[in-house]
Design goal:
The chain contains 2 helices and 11 strands, in the order E-E-E-E-E-E-E-E-E-H-H-E-E. By secondary structure, the protein is mainly beta. The strands form 3 sheets. It has a 5-stranded mixed sheet with strand order 3-4-1-8-9, with no helix packed on it. Strands 2, 5, 6 and 7 form a 4-stranded antiparallel sheet that branches. Strand 5 (73-80) and strand 6 form a beta hairpin. The longest helix is centred in the C-terminal third of the chain and has 4 residues, at 123-126. It is globular, with a radius of gyration of 22 Å. The N and C termini lie far apart (58 Å).
Length: 175
């Protein structure tokens, strides 16, 4: 039996992706500013949800983060730079309510937005647990644009070690 705040120990956070098309100048950045502490509690300078320019796109800002399961986020995108913060002012507060499964929210700065479910929750997420930890991919393979098939190391090697010698064997017996 769990008591008090111990009930939240097994609850997993939810993956959330943000995307915003925004015309910015060099030195400016885009943040999600809103009702949760991670979003700065409506102070854009305190927001930890900072978007980065998507590789190859001069206007597409993206990021992904994890927010508490069940959280309700009201937010706006804000452009920060050397001048005062530029808040979205042509749209009402954007809203992600009762987060229970991974979502993506995309829009144009000061334009309509769209929220979509990324995938069905895993059995671990559905049960409110984190599940097994998976090591992240190396950055060269995580970014498809960085993959260079011509520099592939070939099949994996097995290192065979005995007390007196070490040898490297490739599949098929070649050394």
């Amino acid at each position: 039996v769990f008591v008090g705040s111990a009930c939240t120990l097994g609850m997993a956070d939810v993956d959330v992706e943000f995307g915003c098309e925004a015309g910015t100048k060099p030195g400016e950045t885009v943040v999600v500013c809103g009702s949760l502490e991670a979003a700065g509690s409506w102070d854009p300078h305190k927001s930890r949800i900072r978007l980065c320019l998507q590789h190859g796109s001069p206007n597409q800002w993206v990021t992904s983060t994890r927010l508490p399961r069940g959280a309700d986020l009201a937010f706006k995108y804000v452009v920060l730079g050397s001048h005062k913060p530029n808040w979205e002012d042509a749209v009402p507060d954007r809203r992600l309510g009762q987060l229970h499964s991974p979502v993506a929210y995309t829009c144009r700065f000061n334009g309509p937005g769209q929220c979509s479910t990324l995938s069905a929750p895993s059995p671990f997420e559905a049960a409110g647990t984190e599940g097994p930890k998976i090591a992240p991919m190396s950055s060269a393979y995580a970014n498809p644009a960085m993959r260079d098939k011509s520099k592939s190391p070939g099949p994996p090697e097995r290192i065979l070690a005995t007390p007196r010698e070490k040898s490297i064997e490739r599949p098929g017996g070649a050394m």
